[in-house]
Design goal:
Blueprint lengths: L15 E3 L2 E3 L1 H5 L5 E6 L10 E12 L4 E14 L6 E16 L10 H5 L4 E3 L4 E3 L1 H10 L36 H13 L1
Parallel strand pairs: 6-7
Antiparallel strand pairs: 1-2, 2-8, 3-4, 4-5, 5-6
The structure holds zinc ion (2 copies).
Length: 192
């Protein structure tokens, strides 16, 4: 499938090999402080679940030992409503700041000692590709609320029969309540 991509390259046009992978070979050859800025357009990159789509700006700066990524990305992801267990979309802003380190010294071709010592270090592949896909997924997951809601007024599932009360009513709570006692019944519910 041919995916059409349009990017602005305000500084340099680093070729993009695959989705959310950036070839930083040239950037790594440049002095500290060198910058690349990429724009990610909605609907143009493939992403990992639960992320459905992303758009925003990615900024990369050559650091002493690697590449610092600062990205402000809007992320649409799928969350499961904690009341009605329906899947729904949620858009949030991720502010990503991570430093990536090369595995191969561009000048000597040798493996870098730094990333061998630190297994948790984010690595730039031997092909000089800096891959943001998994980082974005991790940020998106940790950004999800503990109890997501499809909407604030979601009615949830009936605790008795399991019916989705957003879609239909059920007979479980249909015992007629004298409006004069309604408030009292509410209090009773609170105590139970
Ligand atoms: Zn819901
Ligand atoms: Zn019910």
């Amino acid at each position: 499938m041919q995916i059409r991509r349009e990017y602005n390259w305000p500084i340099f046009a680093a070729p993009r090999i695959a989705d959310m992978q950036y070839n930083v070979a040239q950037l790594l050859k440049e002095p500290m402080g060198s910058v690349r800025i990429f724009q990610v357009e909605a609907g143009q990159v493939e992403v990992l679940s639960p992320v459905k789509d992303i758009w925003g700006d990615v900024r990369m700066v050559r650091t002493h030992q690697g590449v610092l990524v600062n990205a402000e990305l809007e992320v649409a992801s799928v969350v499961t409503c904690s009341r009605c267990v329906d899947d729904c979309d949620r858009v949030s802003t991720l502010n990503i700041e991570e430093e990536f380190f090369p595995t191969i010294d561009l000048h000597t071709g040798r493996r870098m000692a730094l990333v061998e010592e630190d297994e948790d270090a984010l690595q730039i592949g031997e092909d000089h590709l800096l891959d943001l896909t998994e980082v974005i997924r991790q940020y998106a997951i940790s950004d999800q609320p503990m109890k997501p809601l499809c909407r604030a007024e979601c009615l949830g599932l009936c605790l008795e029969c399991g019916v989705d009360l957003n879609r239909s009513g059920c007979a479980c709570n249909e015992a007629p309540i004298d409006p004069r006692w309604g408030a009292l019944a509410g209090l009773q519910d609170l105590r139970n």
